[in-house]
Amino acid sequence: MAKGAVAEKTTQKPKSSHGSQRGFGAKTILFNDNFHTFEEVASQLVKATKCTYSQGLKFAWEVHTTGSAVVYTGHLERCEAVAMVLEEIKLKTKVEL
To answer: Residue 2 — φ and ψ, nearest 5°?
Structure first.
């Protein structure tokens, strides 16, 4: 990610949905790039996952420092929807079971 605001690294668990439907246990992974600012990533995470802006900055910092981060866990369909929103601004994502 490009230079921007600095946030502390987080060890908090990603936001998750609850239930027992098919596909539960999937995760959305966000990968680092050199094009988006911390602020852009945090704002898109708020839109995609409904996390707070502060949590979005923490995820952005984790992605920046480690190369990737699980930003959402839950049902497969919801993880795919989160990835689609993140990809609206060309962020690189992957959904895994």
So the answer is: -70, 170
